[in-house]
Amino acid sequence: MRIFGRVSQEQIVFGLAVLLCIGFAVSLPGFLTASNVLNLVRSVSILGILGVAMGLVVIGRGIDLSLVALMAVSVAWMLNLVGSGMPLPQALAVGLAFSLLVGAVNGWFVAYAEVPAIFATLAMGTLIYGFGRYFLFALDVAYIPDAAKPLLWLGQGTLLGVPVPIYVFAAVCIAGYLFLRYARSGRYLRAVGDNLAAARITGVPVRPIIVLQYLLSSMIGFLAGIVTAASVASMNTRLALSTYVYDVILVVVLGGIGLSGGKGGIRNVVVGTLLIGVLLNGMTIMDIQYTVQNVIKGVLLLTAIVIDTIVNPRDEQTAQQGDI
Amino acid sequence: MTLSDRIVRWRYRYVPDHLLGEILTKRWVDNAIPLLILLAVIAVFGSLIPDFFSAASISNLARQWGEFGLIVLALTIVMVAGGIDLSVGSTFALGNIVALALMNVAGWPVPAVVAGTLACGAAVGLVNGLLVGYLRLRAFLTTLVTLIIVRAVVDMLLLRYAVAIAAAFPDSDFWFFFGEGFVAGVPFSVVVTVGVAIVLHLVLSRTRAGWHVLAVGGSRRSSHNVGIPVRRVICATYVASGTLAALAGVLFASRLGAAGADIGIGLEIAALTAAVLGGNSLGGGRGSAAKAVIGSVTVMIMVNSLVRLGVTSGANSLLLGMVLLAAVMIDVRWLKNRYKFLSKVYVSPTYSDLPPAPGTDGASPYALNDRLRPVEAIGLDRIDGPEDVILDEEDHIYAGNRTGDIVRFLAPDYERQEIFAHVGGRPLGMAFARDGSLLVCIGGMGLYRVGRDRRIEKLTDETNRSWFSVIDDSRLRLADDLDIAPDGRVFFSEATVRYEMHEWPVDCLESRGNGRIICYDPRSGSTHTVLKNLVFPNGICMTHDGQSFLFAETWACRISRYWFDGAKKGTVEPVIPDLPGYPDNINRASDGTYWLALVGIRTPSLDLALRMPGFRRRMARRVAPDEWLYPNINTGCIVRFDESGRVIETLWDRSGDNHPMITSMREHRGYLYIGGILNNRVGRLKLDGADPAWTAQASYWGRT
After folding, report:
1. In B, which residues are within 8 Å of A244 by CB distance?
2. Domain for residue A121, yes or no?
3. Cα–Cα distance between B140 and B137 in angstroms, integer?
4. Quick one: three-class SS letters along B108-147?
5. CB A96 within 8 A of CB A219
6. Does A1 reside within a domain?
7. Whole-angstrom Cα distance, residue A104 to residue A138?
8. Contacts of B144 in chain A (CB under 8 A)
9. Which B-chain residues 615-654 have CB contacts (< 8 A) with chain A?
10. CB pair distance less than 8 Å for A294 and B131
11. CATH topology of domain B376-460+474-701
């Protein structure tokens, strides 16, 4: 265990990513070209942005399973609003407000109704997709209308030869880092995740901080949604039903943010994203079947959780009741 | 009595407030709310959908419920042990495709197909179980991942075998019986599911394995510490869950014979909603097959009805999400606040108008004096709480103590003491039977007999259950005092059926008739309740006619006489209706009269409070129990009275420092021996003018 003691999970994962990179670079022709690398980073930047959102919640000992569903529904609705003639800024504001509202409701359920985060957000994900399908739009896929074309730049444009989504990812990472490091509420967030009871006794406004987590994640999720929609010029709301949100958790857990909260930071998200990006890219180049990719991802996530459990052990004496 | 008093009295006589608290103590209230929701759902959709109650509709619904119910049962098993299994939906799909592939493509015989499919499900469960049980991963995330992996495996199998499955058509009536057959008019899947539910119910409620599961769910740490193999139990629940999910897949495969990509997607959310809606707790320890059945029927009807009403698919997940969110929230709040709420509403005072208390001054027979001053202490600081004392023919003193022993002080000087018998519980009233064995009422246990050879024997610990009481009053909670009729029948009082031993003063706040007098007949070994609805019946003493006994009702401050034989059989007559204090034990005196202990003296404030039930209820809800207005049980006296109710003399300890706390007294050879439930001694007082040869044994059984 000395090795585990000195080398953090983050470093192991980073090393793995580098090893994989070298392996792919040697074995796969065309892997290490500038365009492929840019493409690789571009393709995972959305996952990374969502990873930052999820990471902030997980650091605060929560989890947000409604992240992807909310992103899909709010952005699809926003696009529909623009399509039906609403000015773009106003539609953006409405979509963001909707996101924040749902985030606040999530937060309320977790912080004030004391529903376990995992159930509150799982139910909310199902609920929000149903709400969207029933009330907000009729079609599964919302295409970007002409009035919203300026958004396309966010997903498809380049700046100095580098795709814009990478800049967005970087900006979100920096903002997240600064928030966790320097903002008072960021520090509180980590304290709440580390030991909620102690934070409460110390005088941290625990419940508002929990609500803040979900507000942040829904806000970042909305941004990620816009980038997603801009990349492919549409938003497929079936995404809400897919297992995409588990990829996001994979990124977070793999990067080394413990699910018991209080540990890790934005750097872990970046590392996790890199590994997943390399893996997905490599598997796609190798032309591995989509279902097999799913199995591999699943086994990887399982391994990550096993390692997480070994590093942060829980047993009959330390397990908390109802902590599932 | 004023009109408002009268109204208050009628209101408390006819509105049974205490039922609310008693219903809340029952475990079945957990099922009551889900059942009401189910009835509401049936009422709403039954009226919205024409033909809802037609035979075809119900049969169709029931068959689908059979499969869904199995999955909810599977999830329930895991949830009861404190875990969660989200992979049930994928395992169901896996069971479906494996069964179809084995049947249609591989052409196995039907029993082998079923066995193979179940083994497949069990294998998935075993993976979950090993990971969650033995490696102690987080159940939620782990089963989420196995959900994804199993789903991916199903997709891979689909790519490979879907065409072959669709092309082949198995020729086996037996196989289609699973999906389409009826047993006595009931769809086969329903028969299977109901069977599984019954087995699960029996296992959880009646077997060691089931108790282990519930214990692990209730507190993983405690079960580990008492030696339950926690990891193995958890692992087993996942295996059971996987097997049941695969079984549902077999039924589904036989019914539809289709291998689609969207089978079982989102099923885990529906199953989770059903399980939680039925009242199974997240985090374990509380759950049952009945809850799973109620929840699954409710969700099944909701989902199915929405489809039949023709609303779009979005409405379905909207509804499921909302129901799940609401159910989880109610579950969390209910679990957190149930006992808080219960402790607030359990105490339900009623109106009690005591007659005016006689004075204790001057000419009153209760006039204060100092006659208990010369009391000498026996076993000072060596006995804890002798509620009752009794002496045998060799003059040894017997007294119960707080730790469940019957202590014997040896004659003649009572310097030496020994533990005569360890009976457990809280020994209270005692009496010697004709054969010299000691009969004891033990609070929390019942009526026991300690033979001369110190052998302890249970005589009775239950009586006939009342037909209409909510709480189970068959078990004795607080057997208090007893006496023995000449024919050997034992009459004993149970002070209250609503409180345990250590909460007995709280019963005064209610002053409802919660107590009863019970008869144990040694000839037939039977026990039955003789008198009900008494206000804390306490002391019992046989009169000299052998046909009746006197009994004290503590919080009603009265002595009454009950005839169990003879011309007046079955009647109750008041003897002393207005005592100045709270009567406790009654015992015979040497001159044919009776000794009575008053455990405490009434206070005007509590007497007033007893006429104000609303005030006492507010007190019980808003004030901490330590601050409640309790009856005074610290200062009492000894009274001697005769059968007509005339009070002859009263013995007080005016200074309050020698022997103020009195719950019992026995006269024996010219001395009075005094016990008190909070005392650290047994008191002894020389009686002037008493018969120095008189003993209770002689008085009762005619021996010396």
Report:
1. none
2. yes
3. 9
4. CCHHHHHHHHHHHHHHHHHHHHHHHHHCCCCHHHHHHHHH
5. yes
6. no
7. 26
8. 246
9. none
10. no
11. Neuraminidase (2.120.10)
What is the total count of domains within chain A? 1
**Does residue A322 have a pLDDT over 60?**
no
**A130 contacts B321? CB cut-off 8 A:** yes
Residue A321 is predicted with a pLDDT of 47
> What is the side-by-side order of every strand in the sheet holding B537-542?
B537-542, B548-553, B558-563, B572-576
Q: A324 falls in which pLDDT band (50, 70, 90)?
A: low
Residues from chain A that touch B140, judged by Cβ atoms under 8 A, are: 118, 324
- Are B313 and A113 in contact (CB < 8 Å)? no
Residues in chain B: 704
The residue of A139, A309, A316, A317 whose CB has the most chain B CBs within 10 angstroms, and thus the best one to mutate to test that interface, is: A316
**Domain spans in chain B, listed from the N-terminal domain onward:** 56-343, 376-460+474-701
Residues of A with Cβ-Cβ distance to B149 under 8 angstroms = 294-295, 298-299, 302
Q: Do B56-343 and B376-460+474-701 agree at the fold level?
A: no
Nearest residue of chain A to residue B218 (CA atoms): A321
B329 at A interface, C-beta within 8 A? yes
Domain ranges, residue A295? 8-311
In B70-99, the residues whose Cβ lies within 8 Å of chain A are: 82-84
What pLDDT does residue B1 have?
67
pLDDT of residue B694: 92
Residue pair A229/A235 in contact by the 8 Å Cβ criterion: yes
Contact B325 A302 (CB under 8 A): no
Instruction: For residue A286, give the amino acid letter.
Output: M
Which residues in chain B come in under a pLDDT of 70? 1, 312-313, 703-704
Helix, coil or strand: residue B651: strand
B417: distance to nearest CA of chain A, Å?
45
At B552 the pLDDT is 95
Q: Which residues of B touch A120 (CB under 8 A)?
A: 325, 328
Q: What is the DSSP string of B170-209?
A: ---HHHHHHHH-EETTEEHHHHHHHHHHHHHHHHHHHSHH
Instruction: For residue B221, give the nearest of A114, A301, A317 by CB distance.
Output: A317
Enter the ipTM.
0.81
Judged by a CB distance cut-off of 8 A, whether residue B284 touches chain A is yes
pLDDT band at A315 (very low <50, low <70, confident <90, very high): low
Tell me the C-alpha distance between B636 and B308, whole Å: 75
Q: Per the domain annotation, does A3 fall within a domain? A: no
What is the structure's pLDDT at B238? 95
For chain B, positions 218-247, list CB contacts with chain A under 8 A. Answer: 219-221, 223-225, 230
Element (H, E) at B289: helix B289-309
A75-119, pLDDT tens digit by residue?
Answer: 999 988 988 888 888 999 999 999 999 999 999 999 998 888 888
Does residue A220 sit within a domain?
A: yes
Q: Given CB atoms, is B310 within the 8 Å cutoff of chain A? A: no
The pLDDT of residue A323 = 56
Average pLDDT value over all residues in chain B: 89
Class of domain B56-343: mainly alpha
Torsion sign (Cα): B677, B679, B682, B683: negative
Q: Would you say the pTM of this structure is higher than 0.80?
A: no
Q: What is the pLDDT of residues A219-262, one digit of tens each?
A: 999 999 999 998 888 888 888 777 788 788 888 888 888 777 77
CATH number of the domain where residue A92 is located: 1.10.3470
Nearest alpha-carbon partner for B392 in B339, B432, B443, B343: B432
Structure tokens of B198? 């019954």
Instruction: Provide the sign of the torsion angle of the four alpha carbons B564, B566, B568, B573, taken in this order.
Output: negative
**A vs B: CB pairs below 8 A:** 167
From A230's Cα to the closest Cα of chain B, the distance in A is 25
The amino acid at B215: A
- Say which residue the tokens 């039954």 belong to: B46
Residue A318 has pLDDT above 80, yes or no: no
